[in-house]
Model the fold of this input.
Amino acid sequence: MFIEVDQSGSVAGFESIVTEVANHEGTNGLLILACDDNGFTPDGVDGVLRAQSLPLFGGVFPQIIHDNDKLQKGSIVAGLTSGIDVHVVPRMSDPEADYDDIIDALIPKTGDAKTMFVLVDGYAGRISALIDSLFNIFGLELNYIGGGAGSIDPNKLNMDQTPCLLTNQGLIKDSAILALLDAQSGVGVAHGWDHKLKGPFKVTESEGTAVRSLDWRPAFEVYKEVVEDHCGRTIGEENFFDVCKAYPFGITKLEAERIIRDPFTVDENGSLIVASQIPKESFVDILTSDVASLVAAAAKAGRTSMDAFKGGKNNLLLLMDCISRVLFLGDEFEKEIAAVRVDDTPLIGALTLGEIANTGRDYLELYNKTCVVGILGE
Amino acid sequence: MMISPADQLQIHYEFSMAIGTSLDLRVMLRKAVSTFLRKLNCQAGGIHLLRPDRAGRGGFEQVFSIPRNTNNIDAYRIAQAQLPTEIDGDRLDDYLSSLPVHGQVGPETHYCLMALPGVGVIILLKNGRPPDNQFIRGLGPLFGKLATACQACLQNEELLKHRDNLTAMVADKSRELVEKNAALTDEVADRRRAEQRFRLAAEAMSDLIYEWNIPDDTLKWFGDIDGALGFETGELPHTIETWVRQIHSDDLTRLSDAIELHRTSTEPINYEYQIQCKDGSWRIWEDYGRPVLDGEGRPYKWVGVCKDITERRKAEQDRERLITNLQKALREIKTLRGIVPICAYCKKIRDDEGFWDQVEVYFAKHSDVDFTHSFCPDCVKIHYPKMVDRDGNLRS
Done:
C-alpha cells in the first residue's frame, strides 16, 4: 500500500501526489481524501482528475486523518493494488430516482469484489434510500464502508451542497460513489452513546431530515426540556449545536447498539433538523455519553474489524469517524485515534457527515455520530 | 440480552406501522420486511407464500426477499429447504401451527421460519445469538397482520388483473363499436342520400311513395301527400289511422280488412279506392305495395306507390260514354249498299220488305239524303213547251 500526503492543500501539491501514487508500481486505483479547507473547486482540480487513466474515487471532508494526525488542510492519496471498479450514482436528491434500477444498471454483477466503498454527498436528500437499495441488491455479499463527504462550518452549520466527491469525471456533488474492491476487509462499527436520558418518544411527525413533533408536541420543545434539565443550560438556535452535540437521538434496534441520529439545528417551526432521516412512527431515546465511552466504542470498533478481517497482506486501516464526534471530543479526539490504531498499520481516514458500514453480520445502516473502522487487505 | 418490555412494545409498534402501507405486494413487503430486518438486526429475510393449483395442492413460492437473491446465501437455502415442497391447501394450517422452527448454520448464523397465518411463511436469518423465543412468539399477531396484508395485496392483484382484462375487453369492444358505428354512419348517410334521391324523384313525379311501418303504424310519404289532398304541409298526421279516415265509406270496409290482412300477409297490395280531400272532393287512388320482410319472412314494412287516377277514371268514363254513343249512332247510320231493284218505267224502288217506293221515299228511308224537286230540260220541253224556245233553252 503506497500512500502519499500533501499538507499544503494546494492543487499543485494535490496533483503531485496523485501523479506519484498513480505511477507507483502495482497501483490499480486511487483512494483520495481531501480537506474542505483546501478550497478545491471543479475548475481547479477537474483537470487533474480527468487526466488520470486509473480509476479513482474519494471525497472532500471537514478534516482527514493520516496515522495519528488529524489534518485540517491537505490531501491523502492511497494507491490500491487490488482490482477496483468505480461507479457513480447520480441524482442523490431526486425523489423519483429508483436506485434499485440505477444500481442494477451500473453493477449487474459484483464479480470478485468483496468490499464496497460507499461515499456520498453528505447533504444529498436520499442517502437512506440508496442504502436500502444497496442492501436489497447485494445483501451481505459485500462488506461496506464509507460515509458522507461535504463541507461543514460548525459555527454556522450551513447545509449547502457543494462539489465534494472526487471521480474520474471531476469534482461533483449530489451523487454517490460505489467503489468495488477485490480486497478482503473487516469492518467494525460502534458509537458509545449508551446513556439514555429520557425516552422513548414517538416521532409523530417528520419530513426528510426534519423531526417536527415528538409525542405530538413540537420536537424542539420536548428535546429542550430533557437536555436543559440535564445540562443546566438554556438552548437556543445560536448555541444549539454547541450544547446538543452531546445529546443525540437513539433508535432502538434488537440486540444491537441503537442507531444514532444527530440533531444539529432547529428551524423556525420548532422542528429539529437531524443529520439523517428518522422515519415517522419510530421511537427515539435522548442519549448522552462521555469521552471514555466514546473512546471505548472506537476501540471496540477496531477490535470488531480485526475479528471480522479474513486476512490479507499490505493492510490499510480506515477510519470513518463522524465530524460531530470529533467536535464533542475536542482535543481528546486523539484518544479515539489511539484506540483504533493499535499497531503500525497505516491509517487513513476522514471525519464524515454520516457513516455507512456493515460489519458483515448485520443489516446495512446509515449511522450518525458513529466510529467505523475498516481493515483493507491489499 | 433480554429485551425489555418497553423495547418490545416499541419494536412491535414500529413493525405494525410498517405493515400494509401499500396494496402493491412488493412495495408493501419491501417496507415491512426491511423494517423487520432492521429492527431485528437480521442479515436476510424472505416471504414464501403457498401457491395452490386448482386441485388445492402446491408449494411455497418466494415472493419477496432482502437481499433479492438468496440463492447464494447458504444459511437461507438451508432454511428454505425446511419448507415442504408440496402441501395440500387443507393441511397448510396444520403445517403453519407447527411453526416457528429454528435452526443454526455454522457457529453463528441462525434461521427462523415463522407462520404467516393462512398464506405462508417468513424466513429470517440472524447472526450472533439465536433470536429470543418468547420475543419471536410475541410477534405472532404482527405476522398475522402481515398475512392479512399479503392477502389484501393478492386480492388487489387479482382485481387489477380482472380490471386490466375488462379494460382490454372494453377497449376491444369500443374499437368494434367505433368501427360498427362508422359503418352504420356511412350506411345511414348512404340511406339518407338514397332517400333524398327517392324523395326528389317522388316529388318530380306526380305519384306518392309511402312507407308503412307496421309496428307503429306510421306512414312516411315521399311526395307532397298533404298538398295532394289539399291540406297545408304538416296538417295531415301521417298515420294509418288518419289515412283510413279519409277513405270513402264504399271502400272503407274493404280497405280496413286489407290493412289487417297485410300486417301479416306478404301478398302484394293492389287496391283502388276513393280518398277525400280537405275540400270534400274525392280523388281516386291506385295503391300498389310490396312488403319488406324481417329475418323470419314476416312483413314489418310496406313500400308502395299511390297514383291519383281520378282524371284517368273520368277519362275512361267519358270514353265509355262516347263509345256507347257511337255505337248507338252506328246503329242509326243509313247506308246504301249492294243491288237496288228499280222499275224500269216509273223508277220506283223495291225495299227489303217488297214494297215499291218512290225514289225519294226510298232514299229518305235509307240515307240521310233529302230531295228538292226541279225539272230537267228534257222534261220541261215535254211538259212545259211554252217555257222553252226553239233551241230548247228555258225562257227567262
Q: What stands out?
A: Chain B has a mean pLDDT of 87. The longest helix of chain B spans residues 140-204. Chain B touches chain A through 32 residues (CB under 8 Å). Chain B is about 45% helix and 20% strand.
